[in-house]
Amino acid sequence: MAAVKLPITPLQVTRVGSRATCDPAPLDTDEDWLMLIRAEDFGLLVDSLLAEGWEVGGSLIAPDDSSLPAEERFSSFRRDDQNLLITASEQFHRRFLAASAFAKRMNLLSKSDRIALFQTVLYGNSCNAAFDHLPGVFADFPPAGFEVAA
What is the largest CA-CA distance in the chain? Predict the structure, then answer.
């Protein structure tokens, strides 16, 4: 990660995104970092990032200023080709890392597949496109020979 002055000590910083999950890694994309912080450090970190020239990259959701459940909250910031995804939610952090690990294991090179996967894992959205290439995943229920007792 490019040098970043942080006024706090993050709980964890992990390289994520297509540069971390795809093989071969694309070089024409941003570099993404997921940062887990303490909720009480959020304001200080945001002020520092904005002072250093980072821009809000699509979301700036304070830990207590959202209609989203706490476990789904994150904020993103962008500077040059770097993106920071910041969350105080351990659940969101775990889910994001789980989706990243799956994307890496399956080597999902298609951006639309990765987006569908993350939408499914992070928010429970139905995104069949991520799994269309896997035969039988969304087969009719009940399968042949399977009886449902009334």
Answer: 64
pTM: 0.77
| Cα–Cα distance, 124 to 22 (Å, whole number) | 23
In angstroms, what CA-CA distances link 52 with 34, 80, 105, 113?
A: 18, 12, 35, 34
What CATH number does the domain located at 12-107 have?
3.30.460.10
The 10s digit of each residue's pLDDT in 90-107 is: 999 999 999 999 999 999
Return the higher-pLDDT residue of 16 and 5. Answer: 16
Q: Could you give phi then psi for residue 81, rounded to 5 degrees?
A: -105, 25
- Sequence spans of domains, the chain: 12-107
